[in-house]
Amino acid sequence: MEPIDFIYESHDDVSIYARQWPVEKEKIKGVIQVAHGLGETADYYQEFSENAIKAGFAVYINEARGHGRTAGDITSPNYREKAGDIGENGFAKMKEDLHAYTGIIQNQYPVIPIFLLGHSMGSAVARLYAFDYGSEINGLITTGTLFDSLELDYLLQIAAQEIKERGLKAPCQDT
Predict the structure, then answer these.
(1) Full-model pTM
(2) Grouped pLDDT means (10 residues each) for the chain, 175 residues
(3) Cα angle at 92 between 89 and 96, to 5 degrees?
């Protein structure tokens, strides 16, 4: 089956771009919901999704705030102005965006197991999700994960300082 692209409205009325690689209901073993890494889009997961489908797993991925088509028209000259900006409390909002997407998946596959795969930045969001909504998924998979919250806190402090000194769009200097 071909991937399906669509837009859904998140908890705070932000339009979130999403893609799903469905599997025929009689062949499906489970659903893998992906929380992607920093700067990634659904396009990065094409090969992964094709292999998951062969194994009987549907794949669902939304492009996080400040990323890909959720950030705007990627062909527009103004795209770079919005890209990368996840907004105030961005990680908490991305967690809620994932939760809204889980609801869409549960409506389509009410009795099929859902596994949340978080990569890099997405692993941090996925862990926040699991803390609040872990009972709604059947498993959590993380890759490219920071080892502890002190590491994440330190990196977020560096990022905040660089944004304050150089602005949101300036290249990173300290990490």
Answers:
(1) 0.81
(2) 92 94 94 93 95 97 89 72 76 95 96 96 93 96 76 69 68 54
(3) 130
